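Our preliminary data section would be incomplete without showing what the modeling component actually yields. Below, a chain of 90 amino acids is followed by its predicted structure, encoded as tokens that our downstream tools consume directly.
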Amino acid sequence: MAANVIQVPIAMVLVAAPGSRPLASALLAMKQPIVFAPLLAIVLVGSGVDIPTEGTRMLGLIGSTTSGVGIFAAEITISAHRFVLSAETV
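Predicted structure:
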């Protein structure tokens, strides 16, 4: 979780278009949910905010489906490309 806070802004700066400003790319990355959500979680946990039981159950259900959804998304992405068997691939 905390890795997203560090890795995503660095990656956004590295893949920024030539001539763009690195600081602007880093600030844009900080506004993305993949960076902002872990930051918010760190602040909430550090401040001792307690999530109600219903919220914990809901987040648990969402968290338990992530691996299946990830595999499904990978399969959809792979199936979008045409597979060709040739001498080069063998």
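Helices lie at 2-14, 22-30, 33-47, 53-64, 66-79. Residues 2-79 form one domain. Preliminary results of this kind motivate Aim 1 of the renewal.
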